[in-house]
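Sat 14:20. Reprocessing the chain from the morning session after the first attempt stalled halfway. Input below, unchanged.
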Amino acid sequence: MRPTLTVFESSPDRGRGLARDMRVRWALEETAVPYDVRLVSFDAMKQAAHLARNPFGQIPAYEEGDLVLFESGAIVLHIAQHHPGLLPEDADARARAIVWMFAALNTVETPIVEREAATYAERGKAWQAEHLAMLDARVRVRLQALARHLGDSAWLDGAFSAADVLMVLVLRRLEGSGLLEDFPTLQAYIARGQARPAYRRAFEAQRAAFEATRGG
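Finished this time. Tokens:
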């Protein structure tokens, strides 16, 4: 059954590959699973049809026959579990890869998103600089631990996996923040992910959707 991925009609990332559907697109491209795309507007995201797919009115949503999933990490895990290429065959290695998937979304992304929100929600506030410095310090602690773990390895745990799909895209949220410059190991890691043909296909597909909407 060919899955359908529901994404922004006009992505707020402006085609930079930062919207969370990029995670699912990349996983589908890595596993060579063909898929269809449904575009939804911001207004449509709050209507009943989309809320039946994602009760929080967000993207992405994933439909495969009668199965409807939301939450990008859960969708990537589903794809990885049902198609070869994104999880190791060895049970222990598979478990470790799944641990790193959770780490990407819970341990690493959480302070990054909190920092991201503060940069625009607190703009102009007298205490923003102090709060942002505190958030930067929290993010650096995570980056230091991640860089230490990665060391000279190409990927998080042996071969490339779904964990790397998530972690690379989580780290990309820091682009332009200045925080990655202190971690060349992580910059090289991101670059390796972006050099993968499946990543490029996913990126171009997301960008093409944005460009088509803007052109219309």
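DSSP finds eight helices and four strands in the chain.
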